[in-house]
Amino acid sequence: MRTKPYVGDVGTVITVNTKTNLTTATLLQLHVLKPDGTQVIWNGTLYNTKYIRYTTGGDDLDISGDYRLQAYVELPLWRGHGDATTFRVYDLYE
Q: What is the CATH number of the domain that holds 24?
């Protein structure tokens, strides 16, 4: 398997460590800012109590460049965003 994502890849697993127990969460999302300024929401799933996991689909990685993403969580007594992070999507043959 490759170690970096390319434009058009499907099935790339993105995992974000929230450093918070999410077992009672009612909503797990990744808020994404694509390189062209488009904002999208990826609905994640719980992984290993503290992680949000998302597997990319057909149009998720459609532009090369830096993607900013931020976890968004709703718990019974709190809701809000985690720290933002960046990952790069590469053009083919890069």
A: 2.60.40
Of the candidates 59, 54, 66, 70, the residue with the CA atom closest to the CA atom of residue 91: 66
Query: What is the pTM (predicted TM-score) of this model?
Result: 0.91
How far is residue 38's CA from residue 85's CA, in Å, rounded to a whole number?
A: 16
Question: How many structural domains comprise the chain?
Answer: 1
Residue 2: per-residue pLDDT: 62
CA distance 25 to 91: 36
pLDDT by residue (tens digit) across 55-82?
Answer: 999 999 999 999 999 999 999 999 999 9
Is 56 in contact with 12 (CB distance < 8 Å)?
yes
CA of 51: how far to CAs of 23, 61, 91, in Å? 10, 21, 28
Do 11 and 55 form a contact (C-beta atoms < 8 A)?
A: yes
Domain-located, residue 4: no
Phi then psi dihedrals of residue 27, to 5 deg: -150, 130
